[in-house]
Amino acid sequence: MRVTAAVLETAGGPFVPQEIDLAPPGPDEVLVRVHSVGVCGTDLEFSTFFPTPAVLGHEGAGVVEQVGSRVTTVAPGDHVAMSFTSCGTCPLCLTGSPAYCRRFDAVNFTGRRPDGTTALSRDGEEVNGHFLGQSSFASHVVAPARAVVPISRDIDLAHVGPFGCGFSTGAGGVLNVLRPRPGSSLVIFGAGAVGVAALLAATLSGCAVIAAVDVNPDKLATARTLGATHVVDSGRTDAAAALREIAPDGFDFAIDTTGREQVLRTAVEALGPLGHCGVIGIGPSPTMSFDWRSVLNGRTITGIIAGGAIPQVFLPKLLDLHAAGRFPVDPLLTHFPFDQINEAVAAVRAGTVGKAVLTLP
Ligand SMILES: [Zn+2]
Ligand SMILES: [Zn+2]
Fold this sequence. Notes:
Layout: E1 2-8, E2 15-22, E3 29-38, H1 41-46, E4 60-67, E5 79-82, H2 91-94, H3 104-108, E6 120-122, E7 125-127, E8 140-144, E9 148-150, H4 166-178, E10 185-189, H5 193-204, E11 209-214, H6 217-225, E12 230-233, H7 239-246, E13 251-256, H8 261-269, E14 271-279, E15 300-303, H9 311-323, E16 333-337, H10 341-350, E17 355-359
Parallel strand pairs: 10-11, 10-13, 11-12, 13-14, 14-15, 16-17
Antiparallel strand pairs: 1-2, 2-6, 3-4, 3-8, 3-17, 4-5, 5-9, 6-7
InterPro entries: ADH-like_C (IPR013149), ADH-like_N (IPR013154), ADH_Zn_CS (IPR002328), ER (IPR020843), GroES-like_sf (IPR011032), NAD(P)-bd_dom_sf (IPR036291)
Cofactor: Zn(2+)
Domain Enoyl reductase (ER): 13-358
C-alpha cells in the first residue's frame, strides 16, 4: 500500500515527507495507522549515522488496521501504543527483561527485520525501517506484535505517542529500577520530557527531596510546577556546589537523562554512600569518567534501557495514572502537523518545547 512517511535521505539531513510503499504485515506483525508520534532525542541521535534512506520514529500510537495470521494479542480497530521490540526467546526476554534482550540491537537498530527484509520501499528501492519496532514517522507502520501495546479506547491518541518511549523511560527508571522509598532524595539531570517523567515518578514514590538540574530556566520552571522541591540552573551556578547545599550528605538517587560526560560525573559524585545513579539518556559523550574513589563507598551506577519496562505491563499502568491526573505530562506536549516534522525537530534541538508530538489526519 501507499503510505506517507518522512524519509531521512542522508545521515544528518532533514526528514522529507513523501509517499512510499509499505508491504502487508507478516504472520507475527500488525499494520497500525498512526495518529500521533513523539519526537525523541534517540531519533535525532540516530539520524546522524543511520543507514539511509530510512524512516525513523519510535513513539507511535494509533489504531490497528490489519493483523498477521499468527497474531492473537490485538485485532483490527484496537487502539495501541507502540514500543521497542525484543526477540521473545532469549533468557532475558523469558525472565521478564525484554528491554535487555540479548538481540535488542539486532531487532531494533539494523533498519531491517531479523531476516534482513524491510517492509518499506520506494519505486522498488528498499528503504530502511523497523526502527525500535516501528519507524512511526509515517502514516502507517508494520510492527511486530511484541512491540504493540493495546490501550483503552477512552484515551485521546494525540497524547499517547510519547508514552511508548520518553515517558516510560523516565518514569520506569524510577519506578522499575531505582525504586526509591518514601522520604528519599533524588536528583534529576535534564528537565526535558524524560527528566520530567522521572520527576513525576519520584513524586508518586513519595520522595521528600526532588531536585531538577538543567541549563534551561523555562524547563526548570515547569519542573517546579510539577513537583520539584529544588531546581538548579547549571548554566548560571556550579551544580555540584548547589546540590551539596540541598543534600549535604549526598542524594540517595540520581538520574541522568543527558548522556554528557561532565553531567554524568556530577550525577555520580552528588550521591551519598550507597547512592544509586540511573543512566538513561543517550547523549553525545562516548565515555563517562570519575574519580574511582568516588564509587568505593557503595555507590551503584545502572544503565537503564526503556525504563526497564515490560511495555505491555507498564504502559497501561502509566496511562491509568495519567487518566487519574497523577502523571500530568500534558503541559509538556506541543503538537505539530506531521508535515512540519523538521520544525518539530528544530524545536526539540533548540529546547523550546518539552515534547514535540506529530499528529496525523
Ligand atoms: Zn530476547
Ligand atoms: Zn526514545
